[in-house]
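Hi everyone, sorry if this is the wrong subforum. Our group has a chain we'd like a structural model of before ordering constructs, and none of us has done structure prediction before. Sequence below.
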Amino acid sequence: MIAGRALIACAPAAVLLAALLLAGCGGESDTEQHREEVQVQSAVREAHLKALMKVKLAERKRREEHPGETLAPAKYSGTLAQRYEIDREICSALPASEMAASLKIDEGSDPEEIAKAYAKQYPGRYREPAYEGCLAGLE
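Answer:
Right subforum, don't worry. Here is the predicted structure as tokens:
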């Protein structure tokens, strides 16, 4: 889940980093530039927390509406089923273009390409459920 959290924060961070770099191009004082940097860092943290809350709320709502039901295919159980479900929620929480941007691939990529890039971060046996869960979340 930690890797998923990092992915969620990447897209807003990239936009805010660009703003920070542009802000540094003027002839501003060090104090003013530092203040702007602090504002950008706060905005990045806030965007990260909002995205994380969105995922958690969607996960909670699904579990309340379907208690005891898992969305993972029968071939997954235990931690593999959890991996599938977590990645399904993460990939459904953001638009496909934002997921692609956070993964540093073309924003026009199709869901299969996005899910494949997303799943690369997971080792061995977790890669397939991560891919399938993300793909299900994007569709």
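For your construct planning: Helices lie at 2-23, 30-65, 78-93, 96-102, 111-119, 124-138. The chain has six helices and no strands.
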